[in-house]
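My current task is to audit a protein record that another person submitted. Alongside the sequence sits a line of tokens, each denoting a local backbone shape. Where you disagree with what is written, explain briefly why. This is what I was given:
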Amino acid sequence: MNQPAAASSKRLTTDIPARMDRLPWGRWHWRVVIALGVTWIIDGLQVTWVGSISGVLRRPETMRFTEREIVLLGTFYLIGAVVGALGFGYLTDKLGRKKLFTVTLGVYMLGAICTAFAWNFASFAAFLMITGGGIGGEYSAINSAIDELIPAKVRGRVDLAINGTYWVGAAVGSLASLVLLDPRFLPIDIGWRVGFGTGAVLGLIIIFYRNHVPESPRWLISHGRLDEAESVVADIERHFRDSGVDLEAVTETITLEPRTDMGFGLIARTMIQTYPSRSFLGLILLVSQAFLYNAVFFTYALVLIKYYGVADDRTGLYLLPFAVGNFLGPVLLGPWFDTIGRKPMIAATYSISAVLLTLTGWLFTQGYLSATTQTLLWMVIFFFASAASSSAYLTVSEIFPVEMRGMAIALYYALGTTIGGTAAPYVFGRLIESGSRINLFYGYLFAAGLLAVAVVTTILYGVKAEGASLESIASPLSRVEAAEHAGSVPP
């Protein structure tokens, strides 16, 4: 049964992490995944919509944006996401996962509805930054909570599948563009605004559904709130027992001495001194995937329009197979991250993505591709690249202690997005403006080179995390054993 709380006024001993990891997959987990995982659907919908309307926003009867302004919109969205991730990432470690669910989703809704009423480039960019801020904050709070609520034996496949649902949102956005951007159904300057408003309505529905998701018991015990954590876990276990599940007893316990002095200095020291190789690994994985994704995704419509003559209101149709490949990759390859292992699968997916990207770039340069074959090749590339990208988020959410998990996710999301994501749309936008296929090919080669660096880094510093509890992968900073044997912590 439950282990008693411990011994000193601050020190506590508990079996809560072991009890959470021994749970079988059940309906309770599905409810958590649906309530929290919708973040990626919303993000996919948002980003796809911005990409799909890029051609429409250039028209004189709408916003009259230039090509460079269109590309800059992606950069402004990512800047907002970076700021939101850092701010809300810090707060999710300090105040808890659950409290941030409503706040970050509310910020997204505010930005989305305001963007629908934008009147010029400055207002559009400002509101899009607010929208990105909400989504960026969601990444840290939601990734932390999901990892801490999902059993260790399926954490890899669940994380990858959830991240893959981004592309469900992308597919919805793509299909919506075929209707909302068609002047036969709505005036061209109204349809794109309705798309942003729809995202805000979806957020309003989800905000109520999240009320039923509990605070992370792991976060609660790391902050000394053992009674609350016991109540949460007991309620979860009651759901399983009421369904006829016989839960086995656990004997593994952990002893903590909760601390509240989690400042940026301690976080920095932990990442640089205690986990230097893991810190480098997370940076490389996030930067390389962010550069690839933002290079292609924020400019795919411009490529189709400029090089293949696709009508600007039909680009969303070509995104559909692209989104299907991106969704199927994490879903179908995800189980292997729990069985074959994190390290070999991360290296394999990054390697295959780099090779296929180089090959596709060469075929594009030689003029062998049409809009259809270009899209099909993108679909194949991102079948693997999507799993690779999702595994990067999985990695940084697993390899650092619970007390700084939200901030670690936020920091790497911010660094990856700033270095790889903010620059990529601008650079590739300039390459597309040049009209030179060979220049664009050089950009693809650079992205493939970054992926190759990620492969080497994974081979050298990858962490064996499949099937392991979060506490065994990265010991909590408040763990008594960790404090007494700090020198034995792996890098």
